[in-house]
Design goal:
The complex is a heterodimer of chains A (about 400) and B (about 425). Chain A contains 18 helices and eight strands. By secondary structure, chain A is an alpha/beta fold. In chain A, helix 10 packs across helix 18. Chain A is globular, with a radius of gyration of 21 Å. In chain B, about 20% of the residues lie in helices and about 25% in strands. Chain B has a five-stranded parallel β-sheet, covered by helices on one side. Chain B starts with a strand and ends with a helix. Classes of the chains: A alpha/beta (about 400), B alpha/beta (about 425).
């Protein structure tokens, strides 16, 4: 076995790059054991142990930087919320990734993502001027200083044709509910949540600063997001850069309105619905009740709980830059999520995150369950009930 | 000159020790115990580590010392409701809840035969049930039956009244209040096991065959729910492969930040229960560190020698249940092989830590506590003893309680 060298310089670099809690880790291994990668077989599962990665980081030992280890974490937060020492494991992962990303080494699948964020302000290689194309045929109010909420639509729902339906249904429901909201336009840039998790701190700052300046110049005070990822970064990461806004996921506002009786649904949907808690809405933002309240207020919807739900929800595998990763079938934990829903006899798997939708829909199709199980974003179900 | 009597709150091993030590040098002692019997958590143990002897003999000796000593007075089903005065001259208000069974009880058990109502058996941590009228356990002291008023159907039923030949049952018994004048107080209310259902990924409360270490003591005890046979709660099948999950809630900032210091030894001990009963059984202990401090290193070395005991370095992750067999699957990263370990077990024992009783039930008297509810200091004539101070084993409790008795005596002398 070849010898490896402990590098205190590397260790110090990691700490300075954001891994301040690296030394809190006592190597109990709960993180490795709770990691969703343990639920699937395959090469990544066999190579990637988050406990070991922390240890290598503590010692500045090489090995954490192997691509299949370094970029395996989906940042689902299952380890982090349960860590006995409250180590900020995801920040440690981020700082380890930055050692290679800041030096220009990025996994092949993420190269175009980073390139497009630099060039277009979105990860989907979509031209900036087409950012608002999702609105076609829909009358979406423009944000003015008199508007209460600025609706920030996730890049994914701006460009991905499937995901655009989410943006459209969110807008429709907000209009029906009489919410004062509006969008800014093509000057908006990606929130930067995922690229920060990928380890490109500089690019994150660039995107965030441009957004903060734009939002401020337009007089934004309250933000509604379509994606829990944008919610997370606006709420927890923008304030360090001077961007203080009141931020909510759209389901939170709608749930409030429904609770106050200002939003009622009447169309009978007649569905058996399982709700998948997105990691970034649930574990990372603590929103568990709002989506459930909305689903329960739909006539004809029978809500069933998945075996792993709420704090114990199983990740769809799309966070932390993994949305663009190629994973062989049988090794995707999103597939387990589809099977979880089937296990509960659900005909509809509802969630509240555009990443989850992409992952779960692909996994549902791969398992050939798409005839039996429909994957829907919660706003799509809501608008059906309002239309009928 | 202070009042020469001492109040001991809690009749577990610490309280009994403090009471007996103080009384045997001539002080008047009152024991106030919440349960209908004395002995506390120790009475619920199967064996002590490291000698693996039963706790009954030690308790019996203490009970005899109490019976033979006119200076010791004890009240069961009692609680302290208020304290006033100062060191050397304290007035304590005590409430005694009705037992509904009086001194005439001979523990013949005829009442149980006719009682139609059931209650969860808290002595066995809910592993079985008793009738509404019950004897807490076969070695109970005082050896008298008691009625659980929450389960009892009352006078309209009255079957036990007819069955009792001694007129020992009194369903009209009322709570009583009394006041005691003492010079000092020893607060020894002990500990509660950490609520394992709060560790959601271990499935306690959802999966029948996930139990806690205190429940394991009852399963292994001759006076326990199975007569000492270690079997699965789901189907009564003998346990052939068992997992002990260490630090279930301990050393964990989200639960108990401290190490209870006894759970590693308890699991090693409990592994011997299983391996003794079934030498072909396999026991696995999933740990962060095995903490067998001081002299206990020897016990650890001895137990670990058994080839059917497997020590796995790696905290267990999510526990799942096979819905058909009710077997449990434990996942951990074995840090020696650095590989995933996914093993199927008949039963999982969660090594839960000790929570001081003072965390939830604060004494109605001024005392200082740390952030976890443990008693710190003590100078106003009220002294903690045993597990309200810190998590400790029985031997340490005895020492700590003896020290507390000395401090309590000094307070009565006005020092």
């Amino acid at each position: 076995m070849e010898s490896k060298e402990i590098s205190l310089e590397m260790r110090e670099y990691l700490i300075s790059a954001g891994a301040q809690t690296l030394d809190w880790c006592m190597q109990c291994g709960l993180c490795s054991a709770l990691c969703p990668w343990r639920q699937v077989p395959g090469h990544i599962s066999e190579s990637f142990y988050i406990r070991r990665m922390q240890r290598l980081g503590q010692l500045g030992l090489e090995g954490f930087d192997a691509e299949e280890v370094l970029f395996a974490c989906t940042t689902c937060g299952m380890c982090q919320v349960n860590c006995p020492r409250q180590v900020k494991i995801i920040e440690n992962v981020r700082s380890m990734r930055s050692t290679t990303v800041e030096a220009g080494f990025v996994p092949g699948t993420l190269r175009s993502v980073i390139g497009s964020l630099h060039a277009n302000g979105n990860p989907w290689s979509g031209p900036r001027e087409k950012r608002m194309d999702w609105q076609k045929g829909l009358d979406v109010p423009a944000f003015t200083p008199e508007t209460e909420y600025f609706l920030f639509v996730c890049c994914t729902s701006c460009y991905d044709p499937r995901s655009q339906r989410i943006a459209r249904s969110v807008v429709e429901v907000l209009k029906r509910a009489g919410v004062s909201f509006g969008v800014i336009g093509t000057e908006e840039s990606c929130c930067g949540e995922t690229v920060r998790k990928i380890g490109d701190e500089e690019l994150f700052k660039k995107l965030a600063e441009s957004n903060i300046e734009l939002f401020r110049s337009r007089g934004v005070r309250k933000i509604l997001t379509t994606s829990p990822h944008c919610l997370y970064t606006f709420k927890y990461e923008y304030p360090e850069l001077g961007g203080e806004f009141e931020v909510m996921h759209y389901t939170q506002l709608l749930a409030e309105l429904a609770r106050e009786g200002r939003l009622a649904f009447d169309g009978a949907a007649g569905r058996r619905v399982a709700y998948h808690d997105p990691c970034y809405l649930g574990r990372h933002n603590g929103v568990f009740e709002a989506p459930r309240l909305l689903l329960q207020s739909l006539p004809g919807v029978e809500l069933v709980e998945l075996s792993r739900s709420r704090e114990r929800s199983l990740c769809c595998a799309g966070g932390g830059g993994r949305l663009w990763a190629e994973v062989p079938r049988g090794e995707r934990f999103g597939e387990l999520r589809v099977l979880d829903a089937e296990d509960k006899g659900a005909d509809t798997l509802v969630t509240a995150c555009p990443y989850c939708i992409i992952m779960l829909e692909a996994d549902c199709l791969a398992l050939e369950k798409n005839e039996k199980l429909k994957v829907m974003e919660i706003s799509e179900l809501l608008i059906q009930s309002l239309r009928e | 000159m202070g009042n020469k009597s001492i109040l001991v709150v809690g009749g577990g091993i610490s309280g009994l020790t403090a009471a007996v030590e103080a009384a045997e040098v001539g002080y008047e002692v009152y024991i106030v115990e919440k349960n209908p019997y004395l002995g506390g958590r120790v009475a619920q143990l199967n064996q002590y580590f490291p000698k693996l002897c039963p706790p009954n003999c030690g308790l019996e000796i203490n009970f005899r010392r109490i019976k033979n000593n006119p200076k010791i007075h004890f009240f069961t089903q009692a609680e302290v409701t208020g304290v006033s005065g100062q060191e050397g001259d304290l007035e304590v208000r005590v409430k005694i809840n009705p037992r509904y069974v009086n001194e005439n009880c001979t523990a013949c058990g005829k009442c149980v035969e006719v009682c139609p109502a059931e209650r969860e058996n808290d002595f066995n941590y809910g592993l079985d049930k008793t009738k509404a009228i019950y004897l807490p356990h076969i070695f109970a002291f005082p050896l008298k039956y008691v009625i659980d008023s929450r389960a009892c159907r009352g006078k309209e039923c009255g079957k036990c009244l007819e069955a009792c030949a001694y007129g020992a049952i009194d369903l009209d018994m009322q709570p009583k209040e009394m006041a005691l004048k003492v010079g000092s107080i020893v607060w020894a209310t002990g500990w509660n096991p950490y609520d394992a259902s709060k560790i959601s990924y271990y499935g306690f409360g959802r999966y029948k065959n996930v139990i806690t270490n205190v429940m394991m003591e009852r399963l292994a005890s001759i006076n326990g729910p199975t007569g000492g046979r270690i079997v699965r709660p789901s189907d009564g099948k003998p346990v052939e492969k068992v997992a002990f999950v260490q630090c279930a809630g301990s050393r964990d900032e989200n639960h108990l930040p401290y190490c209870s210091g006894i759970c590693c030894l308890a699991s090693l001990k409990q592994a011997t229960y299983v391996l003794e009963q079934n030498p072909a059984a396999q026991a696995y202990i999933f740990f962060i560190d095995i903490r067998a401090l001081g002299k206990y290193e020897d016990f650890y070395a001895r137990v670990k020698d058994n080839p059917n005991l497997h020590l796995i370095k790696g905290k267990a992750g999510e526990i799942t249940e096979d819905p058909e067999t009710k077997d449990l699957i434990v996942v951990a990263e074995d840090q020696v092989t650095q590989k995933l370990m996914k093993e199927r077990f008949d039963m999982v024992v969660l090594a839960t830590g000790m929570v001081p009783a003072t965390r939830e039930a604060r004494p109605p008297v001024e005392m200082a506590f740390d952030g976890n509810g443990f008693v710190v200091g003590g100078a106003n004539g009220v002294y903690g003893a045993g597990c309200v101070h810190r998590p400790m084993d029985v031997a340490s409790c005895v020492q700590d309680a003896t020290a507390a008795a000395l401090k309590a005596i000094q307070s009565t002398l006005g020092r």
